[in-house]
Specification:
The chain is mainly α. The chain is 54% helix and 6% strand. It contains 14 helices and seven strands. A three-stranded antiparallel β-sheet has the order 3-7-4.
């Protein structure tokens, strides 16, 4: 908020503390797709403190600053951006961390800040509504929509012209255990929706196996008789989880009962896995897991979609908003 005669208020300066935190969570979202809920609590407290502080400054400054520079933007931020974040999370459009990030931004940046650096005053543009969190949200959406275009250009430049070139790219099977996203292939061909790689990691950890183990002896591991007598904790599928790998020891006890035929009632033991664990493994069905395993034991290179780590567009949207302002308004005007 810009009060008369002020280039940057105390609350606006304090809000800059959040910028490196959002940069950190964006990097973590890329690497692990996991952000602890504990990150958002201090930022929410900071947002409440700066909101109260700014409200007092606006009240002291008088009617216009209170009504038009603080009250209306804050009402839009809390009454519009917060419900949008909740609804998108409710309907599955956002992950939990994405929704929490937007809720925190609604508290932290309800009004447009102003920072003077030499002869420059940032952001360079404002909006008629003056709600900064809404500008961050629209910037994030614009950046998010640009990601498929970047992926398509990258694939086209490499000569990879395919039906899924807008949402994914090929990777070696060796990279799959450390890769986030969704498999874009089934035994029948390319697909826009396949096995969630977090669910794959859960399955392999439950069996105490590596993907290399499975590729080396696929006929053996298709037989549900080779499932471990005491399954391992599947974890949540995060690449950083600590894994107990004792699949070989468990298999020695069951190997004599293994069926050498390729016909099984529950190939790969996918139904047994999903019935044994808590939860649904990100909505994965036995058929999806089974088809994904068949692809991964046959192909050396597979197409995956990295998904959309939305915290990355959120951080970029925040950085652009602080420097430039609203991308959408700038494009229209």
């Amino acid at each position: 908020m810009t009060l008369v005669g002020a280039s940057a208020t105390g609350p606006d300066l304090l809000r800059l503390v959040a910028v490196p935190v959002f940069a950190w969570v964006a990097v973590r979202d890329i690497k692990t797709r996991r952000v602890s809920s504990g990150v958002w609590i201090p930022l929410a407290v900071l947002g409440l403190c700066t909101l109260v502080w700014e409200g007092r400054l606006a009240w002291a400054a008088g009617g216009y600053a209170w009504r038009y520079e603080f009250l209306i933007p804050t009402a839009v931020s809390l009454g519009f951006v917060v419900p949008i974040a909740y609804l998108f999370w409710w309907f599955g459009g956002f992950g939990g961390a994405d929704a929490k990030a937007l809720l925190v931004l609604a508290l932290l940046f309800p009004t447009f800040p102003q920072y003077t650096i030499g002869s420059w005053t940032l952001p360079l543009t404002t909006t008629p509504i003056g709600t900064f969190s809404f500008t961050i949200l629209t910037n994030a959406v614009v950046v998010g929509l640009a990601i498929p275009l970047v992926i398509a250009v990258r694939n086209a430049a490499a000569g990879r012209i395919t039906s899924v070139m807008v949402i994914g790219w090929p990777v070696s099977w060796e990279a799959i255990p450390e890769t986030h996203g969704r498999l874009l292939e089934t035994p029948e061909g390319r697909s826009r929706g396949g096995l969630d790689l977090d669910a794959l990691r859960m399955y392999l950890r439950w069996r105490g196996l590596s993907l290399a183990d499975v590729r080396e002896n696929p006929d053996q591991y298709r037989d549900p008789a080779t499932l471990p007598a005491e399954p391992n904790p599947p974890t949540d599928g995060a690449v950083t989880a600590v894994v107990r790998g004792d699949g070989g020891a468990a298999l020695e006890a069951n190997e004599s009962n293994a069926n050498t035929s390729n016909e099984h009632d529950d190939p790969w033991g996918t139904e047994a896995f999903l019935a044994d664990i808590e939860g649904t493994a990100y909505g994965t069905t036995p058929a999806e897991l089974r088809e994904g395993l068949e692809v991964l034991v046959q192909k050396d290179t597979v197409w995956i979609s990295p998904g959309a780590p939305f915290l990355v567009p959120v951080f970029v949207g925040l950085a652009v908003a602080l420097i430039y302002g609203d991308l959408l308004i700038g494009a229209v005007l």
